[in-house]
Amino acid sequence: MRDSIKMKTDDYNFKFRVSGLIIRNNKILLVDMDDSGFLCLPGGYVELGETTEEAVKRELIEEIGKDIMVKKYLGVVENYFINKFSKKMHEISFYYLMDFVSCDVEESNFTLIENDKGHNIKLDFKWINIDEVDNFDIRPNFLKDLFKNNNLEFNHLIFNELNK
Fold it and tell me: Domain 6-101+110-163 is classified in which CATH homologous superfamily?
């Protein structure tokens, strides 16, 4: 087990993440982690010595429990925001288009418990129709516009909610 790439200072928390986007039949697989009240893409921290592609595949297999493959690199996002603990966050996240290796995966909602380095995390997965994303609290917020505009190749984006 390697160390995740993250750090904390008095002013900021930094995290180096990966996120996997799975789309089937105009639906996106999103997750509510530990009853946070919002949905996000499945993913997690990159570990030292690991490529982002290796990390996203590992994270999604750990979280979803199914064999998954990377279809395409989508882009990288630098995101600055306030987290649920009122802490300033600086996040760099690589996004990948993913799919299940097996074609017989059902598009039904499901819940799993992930043991993440000794800490159990409740993961409530939901398939959300792209046309209905405005009805949900999806974070980071910019994802809704990407989904609605079918802009899945975004190269490099920067979002700074701290300078509003």
Answer: Nucleoside Triphosphate Pyrophosphohydrolase (3.90.79.10)
